[in-house]
Amino acid sequence: MSLQGIGFLFQCYLVLAAAMYFDLGEQEQKCIIEEIPEDMLVTGYFLLEPWEMNALSHSPHLGVTVTVRDPNHEVLMSKRYGKFSKFTFTSHASGQHYLCFQTNSTRFSVFAGERLKLHLDVQMGEHSIDPVPDKTKDNMKNLENSLRHLVDQMIFITRQQEYQREKEEVFRQIGDNTNSKVLWWAMVQTSVLLTVGFWQMKRLKDFFIAKKLV
Amino acid sequence: MGCEWRMMSAGLCLLTSLILTVDLTLGFGPNKDMQFTFLLSAGSTECFYQTTARSDSMEVGYQVIAGSGLDVGFALISPTGYRLVSDFRRSDGIHMVDSTEDGDYRLCFDNSFSKLSEKMVFFEVNINSESSSVGGSNEWENMAITESMGEYNMEDIRAQMDSVYQHLERSRQILAVLRALEARDRYLLEDNLWRVSFWSCLSLLVMLFVAVTQIYTLKRLFADTKRVCT
């Protein structure tokens, strides 16, 4: 593995250690929901640690199974990783994706109540990986990298806003549907009420005439 | 001798990158922002933990997107175990911690009062590091500040780009909150549509049933007793 790769991974490790974490029991699955537009690259970094830092974990081979489901609840990706890794996937449909994490140790553990910490950081959009910032590098290179970061951010924001516009379109359609459904059902109920009223009167009249009551 | 020299410089390179990383996040800039949406099942509690350094400022916001009642209980517990915020059954909330302690803050969402409905909760945590906001981006540190390209000063360019980056980050956060609000409204509207259809259909069936029952009850009244009024 190249030096830059190692350096980058170590950067990720340090950043993740300060990221948000939640507790995960062994064999327990927890899911995160992300609203993702289509054709977007999503990168997730995670780090699995035992709850007590100095406690000896009796299942040293910790692993995480990451399952990604698309809005139709079909499995988009399901892979097994080690303690610390990153996963990427590209969404094909726009909507709510479910990222589920489940721990499994390779050894059968009798103590099923052990808690684990899962640090998680999910990033959306393509991020140009800046190489190791070298002090001897050209200032223009640094400037170029920073500008590239900004451009990535702006592209991401534009993409999100387009997606937001699509969803507002759907929202407005649902509102229109509701409105027309209310009107339609009210008309149907009124006409059924009138019809049934006339039918009742007619049947009763015929009945009373037949029974010679009127 | 050449091999050794190369390894040493590579090691130096790695060390440099490590030193820079301690202040850098994966982007550049001192702020961190985390947002998650998750499903909170009925009758359960979920806790999330966030590590902070001393005297950072932290902002926590949450919004319930789906679930009947649209409310959830929230608690924010400091690393020393002191309960800072305790919301009971609110649909949204924003809380700020001005000067954080060193350690892990606990954010707990509580749905134990609801036996049947699960809630979808969106929450975000923004951390502004006081310590590095003065220093700024370290990768520009060693640049000669007096270096200028024509009329423009490198310092100016750096300040402008930092400012643009901060604004774009803020835009992203606001977009995420708006996204959550829109999702909540959309779920509500879909529920409304389903409810309108269901109850209209039901009331129509009840009307027809009552109409037919009325006729046949009346008929049976007269048929049973066979009373004829002459």
TrEMBL record, chain A:
<keyword id="KW-0812">Transmembrane</keyword>
<keyword id="KW-1133">Transmembrane helix</keyword>
<keyword id="KW-0472">Membrane</keyword>
<feature type="domain" description="GOLD">
    <location>
        <begin position="29"/>
        <end position="124"/>
    </location>
</feature>
<dbReference type="InterPro" id="IPR015720">
    <property type="entry name" value="Emp24-like"/>
</dbReference>
<keyword id="KW-0732">Signal</keyword>
<keyword id="KW-0256">Endoplasmic reticulum</keyword>
<protein>
    <submittedName>
        <fullName>Transmembrane emp24 domain-containing protein 11</fullName>
    </submittedName>
</protein>
<dbReference type="GO" id="GO:0005789">
    <property type="term" value="C:endoplasmic reticulum membrane"/>
</dbReference>
<feature type="signal peptide">
    <location>
        <begin position="1"/>
        <end position="17"/>
    </location>
</feature>
<comment type="similarity">
    <text>Belongs to the EMP24/GP25L family.</text>
</comment>
<dbReference type="Pfam" id="PF01105">
    <property type="entry name" value="EMP24_GP25L"/>
</dbReference>
<dbReference type="InterPro" id="IPR009038">
    <property type="entry name" value="GOLD_dom"/>
</dbReference>
TrEMBL record, chain B:
<dbReference type="GO" id="GO:0033116">
    <property type="term" value="C:endoplasmic reticulum-Golgi intermediate compartment membrane"/>
</dbReference>
<keyword id="KW-0256">Endoplasmic reticulum</keyword>
<dbReference type="InterPro" id="IPR009038">
    <property type="entry name" value="GOLD_dom"/>
</dbReference>
<dbReference type="InterPro" id="IPR015720">
    <property type="entry name" value="Emp24-like"/>
</dbReference>
<keyword id="KW-0472">Membrane</keyword>
<dbReference type="Pfam" id="PF01105">
    <property type="entry name" value="EMP24_GP25L"/>
</dbReference>
<protein>
    <submittedName>
        <fullName>Transmembrane emp24 domain-containing protein 1a</fullName>
    </submittedName>
</protein>
<feature type="domain" description="GOLD">
    <location>
        <begin position="45"/>
        <end position="127"/>
    </location>
</feature>
<keyword id="KW-0732">Signal</keyword>
<comment type="similarity">
    <text>Belongs to the EMP24/GP25L family.</text>
</comment>
<dbReference type="GO" id="GO:0005794">
    <property type="term" value="C:Golgi apparatus"/>
</dbReference>
<keyword id="KW-1133">Transmembrane helix</keyword>
<dbReference type="GO" id="GO:0005789">
    <property type="term" value="C:endoplasmic reticulum membrane"/>
</dbReference>
<feature type="transmembrane region" description="Helical">
    <location>
        <begin position="196"/>
        <end position="218"/>
    </location>
</feature>
<keyword id="KW-0812">Transmembrane</keyword>
<dbReference type="InterPro" id="IPR036598">
    <property type="entry name" value="GOLD_dom_sf"/>
</dbReference>
<feature type="signal peptide">
    <location>
        <begin position="1"/>
        <end position="27"/>
    </location>
</feature>
